Predict the structure.
Amino acid sequence: MAERIIMPKQGLQMTEGTILEWLVPEGGAVTEGQPLFKMETDKLTITIDAPVSGTLLKIVKEEGETVPITETIAIVGAPGEDVSALLADAAPEAPDPGAPPPQPVPEKAQQVSATGAPGQRKFITPRARMRAEELRVGYESIAGSAPDGTIIERDILQAAAAAPRATPLAKKTADISGVPLEGVVGTGARGKVVRQDVLHAAARKPAPAAGERDLQPMRGMRKIIADRMKASLDVTAQASHRISVRMDKVREAREALDKSVGYNDLIAFATVRALMDYPQMNAELTDEGIWRKNFVNLGIAVALEDGLIVPVVHGAESMTLHMLSEQAAALARKAREGQLLPEEYAGGTFTLSNLGMFGLDEFEAIINPPEAGILAVGRIADMPVAVDGRVEIHPVMKLTLSYDHRLVDGAPAAQFLARVKEYLENPYKLL
Amino acid sequence: MSIKTYAVAIRDVLAQEMRRDQNVFLMGEDIAEQGGIFGCTRDLLQEFGDKRVRNTPISENTFVGAGVGAASVGMRPVVELMYMDFLYLAMDQILNQAAKMRYMFGGKVKVPLVVRGQQGIGRGNAGQHSQSVESLLMHIPGLKVVCPSTPADAAGLLRTAIRDDNPVVFIEHKALYATKGEVPDDPEFSVPFGKSNVVREGKDVTIVGNYLYLGKALEAADLLEKEGISAEVIDPRTLVPLDTDTIVESVRKTGRLVTVHEAHRTMGFGTEIAAQVTEKAFKYLDAPPARVGAKMCTLPFNLGLENAVVPQVADIVEAAKSVLYRM
């Protein structure tokens, strides 16, 4: 019996999603738990696994279409099944209660489902399964050559012969270095590809031919970031303040805490306290007016391999330093692993972005709407500082605050930034 | 080695064993002066006399019973049934007496009885003279069931049967009596029970068959070879005891099993072999075992119709291709 695939709801705030790519063509085999399509929500690109197995009978929503949650995007069933009834249901109009009942499923399809539905199950003979295990051939994607698509030994042997023979270490090396095994000439026993072959191939990866450009698709997270940053500069009135902070006391405080917290945790903690002191910086422009929030959901930007994401520590104003530290670390880890839930990167009131680890002295960040500001943190470096008419060397960090001048003026923004500095230079004031 | 027919191979072993052991004697219909209707006891009367080569009336239950009695007191009778179909008249003696006595008397009695005779198609002998009885007998504990397909096996297995201390039903095939083959002259030559014979080696499909269907399986293997299919052909030789190990070992190699026999397909011995192979080599199977056997129909008198009921070489080829998904 055919089943509808719907736009899944990924997280509390999701109302619609955009289909980026169908990973199975129409008419292709769908396996439960295997990737079916890629979609993007308001922040993340997610690969969605198929909830059922069968044949992808119909793609209802094409790539690029934005679809409200729970709407039908595709139909999966047994080959040849009549999907017109389900397609009618998939139409955006609410079904007419007076409409005639859906067409009965053709008898053949009913028999199929009653006997275990070849379209939904992958059959493999015991011998083929044994051989697949021996040869470490994954048979999920192999098309069986016996009746009902049953996979037999021959299919496994052919698949094994087609796959490049390589040692496990060579396979892993190829994975890491991004060298396709297909093109590697093996020098091991009977032409087996060994690690050295992969390294060799990786070293002489040919340069792209003239005119051949390395194009990255502008979609998914990249596109979302682009849209948001441009929208931010289009809408907000961005201005910035800079300040230098002596970090001697923070360093001492951190050492007193046995380095159980990072500099960034202390900076975040100071920022949260300063935001509570200056709620103008912790505000949002709504249709009704400027909403100064009495809570802080602190976003902490995390760089990813191919983008960035800002997990949000919710309710940071009521956290101890250690709670904040632990929360931030947990969220950063999830962000890097791509495990963040949508709620965990939404609802921020202010953002902290630290690029000090890249050696930057200072930098300017773009506000993440609808927030009113973002604090860019540079590295902590020993710098000459004038103290009582003498030059001394002290650890210094530079902070750059970008703020939305529509909501907050230069003076309160400056006071906020000075308050952050004050807390960091006198950490006991955070007590 | 001598070239002998299947019938002469049997007669020679009877003679050799009668010379060797005074307790061996023969009973049956028309076995003395006539030498049996297929010549399996020809000239034995002259050498061994009418006390050891005894004609009987047409009374199968009685003379098989006499054989059971003689065996139980130390003789080694070889009782001939003119047609194995007549075994059904002697079923009580064979199933209820011969097969059970040693067990039910606590091992104090042995029944070294051989009941031998011919069965099968090939002469247009109709429904009461052409049947295959081996599968029925396999179901009875206490009986050994022997099915020689060649002159050498007939000789070697008959010697083992006569020297066995338990009742053996030795089933010959009427259409094989005239076939010739090499038979060792050694009067001690024997073929052990429970040892299958790999008659032809192959790697793609295992075909198990006996009697006429050993030859037909070999013919099928030749035809399959022309299509690039390499068939292994195995003759089980004895059905009780059955050497499944050799068959299982073959199926582990080929992944496919076809059983073929002249007996009816339903509950034929191929069914038992298919079941045992499935139990012992399930994960080696690349296709369900295929069974080839006679249709569920009384064997017709007309030879053309007889052929329509029993399997043909083409049926074996088709079954082998079906388990190779080469239809």
